[in-house]
C-alpha cells in the first residue's frame, strides 16, 4: 500500500490555503497535490489496480501548522471519503480471444454503445482505471494489454495484434459497430498514429493522442521500435538529480525516413500535450504534424490542446502529479528515475480540462446521445 498525504494551512474549504502542498482555493487540491509521506521509498507513483474498490482518502484536521509527524499527533477531527473509478452497474469483461488480452468495460443497460480502444504507455503494469471511467460515461472501453500479455513476445506484438483487438471490439454485440475511437497515451499514442495512418483494418471515427509523437513509428513490431531506441541510447540525458530525460533520444531518431505519415489520417484527431513534457517531444511533434497535415490537405481534422507547465503523465482528473518516478527502460530492463515534467498546479488543471474536452470530443465524433451516467 502506498501512503500519500497532502497538507493545507487554512480554516475551511472555502478559505484559501496559505501553505502546504498547494496554495489558493482549490476544491480538489487535497487530491491532486497528494505525495508520498516523508520517509517513503524514492520515486513512487500511485496507480489504481483494483477499480472495484474505492481509493480511501482520510481527511484530518490538526491544530497548528504541521508538515510532518502526523502519526504522533491527535487530530481534532477525521473523515474518510471514497474516490470511485467505476459507476454502479458497469460490467468488467475479460478478453481472452486468440492471443489478444485485455479488459472490456461496459456501461449499464442494454447497449449497444460506442467503443473506445484504450492504449496505455510503457509506464508499468497493465491498468484499467481509464477504461472504467470511460465506461462510466457511456462508452464500451477496452483496455488492451500489449506489453505484458502471457505467451506473447514483443516480436509478436505488431500491427496485426492491434488490428485483431480492434475487430474484437467492433464485433462485440454490446458495441455499436463502426462507431469506434482509439485513445492512446505516450507509446499508446504512437501506436494510435501508426494504425490510423497505415492500417487497412483500423478505421476509427476519431482518435485521441495524449503526450504522443509521430517520431516513434510502429511499422512492424514493438521489438523493432525498442531496438531502434536502444541504438540511440547515447542520446539519453541525465539532469543534476540523476533523472533521465528521454525526449532528446526521440528527437535523435532518423525521423525523415521513419516518422509516421499523419497526412494519411482520415478521421478527426485530438492531440493533448503539456509543454513541459520531458519524456517525448510533444510540442515539436504537434507542430510538425500540423505542417504535415496542412501540406496533405487534412489539417482541418486536427485539434491541438497544449497546456502550459503540464508534463507527460496527463491522467484522469485529480490524479496526483508525479514529476519524476521509478521506471524500467523496456529495451534494456535498466531501472532508472524518469523525468516526466510538469508543475503540480498547472498539471492538475491540464488533467481536469483535458478530460472534459476528451469526453466531449468522443461524444461529438462517435455520434452518441448525451450520457445520463453519473459524472466523475
TrEMBL record:
InterPro entries: AB_hydrolase_fold, Acyl-CoA_thioEstase_long-chain, BAAT_C, Thio_Ohase/aa_AcTrfase, Thio_Ohase/BAAT_N. It holds the Pfam family BAAT_C. SUPFAM superfamilies: alpha/beta-Hydrolases (SSF53474). GO terms for biological process: acyl-CoA metabolic process; fatty acid metabolic process. The active site is at residues 186, 277, 312. Residues 158-367 form the BAAT/Acyl-CoA thioester hydrolase C-terminal domain. One of its GO terms (molecular function) is fatty acyl-CoA hydrolase activity. Residues 14-97 form the Acyl-CoA thioester hydrolase/bile acid-CoA amino acid N-acetyltransferase domain. PANTHER family: ACYL-COA THIOESTERASE 17-RELATED, ACYL-COENZYME A THIOESTERASE-RELATED. Belongs to the C/M/P thioester hydrolase family. This is Acyl-coenzyme A thioesterase 4-like. It comes from Cyprinus carpio carpio. The lineage of its organism: Eukaryota, Metazoa, Chordata, Craniata, Vertebrata.
Amino acid at each position: 500500500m502506498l501512503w500519500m498525504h497532502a497538507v493545507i494551512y487554512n480554516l475551511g474549504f472555502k478559505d484559501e490555503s496559505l501553505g502546504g502542498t498547494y496554495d489558493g482555493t482549490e476544491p480538489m487540491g487535497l487530491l491532486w497535490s497528494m505525495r508520498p509521506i516523508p520517509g517513503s521509498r524514492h520515486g513512487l507513483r500511485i496507480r489504481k489496480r483494483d477499480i472495484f474498490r474505492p481509493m480511501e482518502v482520510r481527511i484530518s484536521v490538526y491544530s497548528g501548522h504541521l508538515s510532518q509527524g502526523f502519526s504522533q499527533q491527535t487530530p481534532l477531527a477525521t473523515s474518510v471519503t471514497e474516490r470511485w473509478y467505476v459507476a454502479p452497474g458497469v460490467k468488467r469483461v475479460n478478453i481472452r480471444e486468440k492471443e489478444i488480452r485485455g479488459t472490456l468495460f461496459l456501461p449499464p443497460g442494454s447497449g449497444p454503445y460506442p467503443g473506445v480502444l484504450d492504449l496505455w504507455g510503457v509506464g508499468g503494469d497493465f491498468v484499467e482505471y481509464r477504461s472504467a471511467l470511460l465506461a462510466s460515461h457511456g462508452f464500451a472501453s477496452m483496455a488492451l494489454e500489449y506489453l505484458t500479455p502471457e505467451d506473447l513476445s514483443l516480436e509478436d506484438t505488431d500491427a496485426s495484434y492491434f488490428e485483431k483487438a480492434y475487430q474484437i471490439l467492433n464485433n462485440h454485440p454490446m458495441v455499436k459497430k463502426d462507431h469506434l475511437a482509439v485513445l492512446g497515451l505516450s507509446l499508446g499514442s504512437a501506436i494510435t498514429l501508426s494504425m490510423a495512418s497505415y492500417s487497412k483494418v483500423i478505421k476509427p471515427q476519431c482518435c485521441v493522442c495524449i503526450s504522443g509523437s509521430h517520431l516513434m513509428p510502429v511499422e512492424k513490431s514493438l521489438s523493432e521500435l525498442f531496438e531502434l531506441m536502444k541504438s540511440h541510447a547515447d542520446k539519453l540525458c541525465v539532469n543534476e538529480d540523476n533523472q533521465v530525460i528521454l525526449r532528446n533520444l526521440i528527437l535523435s531518431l532518423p525521423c525523415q525516413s521513419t516518422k509516421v505519415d499523419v497526412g494519411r489520417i482520415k478521421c478527426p484527431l485530438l492531440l493533448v500535450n503539456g509543454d513541459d513534457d520531458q519524456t517525448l517531444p510533444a510540442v515539436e511533434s504537434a507542430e510538425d504534424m500540423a505542417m504535415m497535415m496542412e501540406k496533405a490537405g487534412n489539417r482541418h481534422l486536427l485539434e491541438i490542446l497544449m497546456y502550459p507547465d503540464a508534463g507527460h503523465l496527463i491522467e484522469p482528473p485529480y490524479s496526483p502529479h508525479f514529476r519524476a518516478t521509478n521506471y524500467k527502460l523496456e529495451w534494456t530492463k535498466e531501472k532508472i528515475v524518469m523525468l516526466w515534467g510538469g508543475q503540480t498546479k498547472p498539471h492538475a488543471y491540464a488533467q481536469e480540462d483535458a478530460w472534459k474536452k476528451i469526453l466531449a470530443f468522443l461524444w461529438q465524433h462517435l455520434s452518441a446521445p448525451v450520457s445520463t451516467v453519473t459524472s466523475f
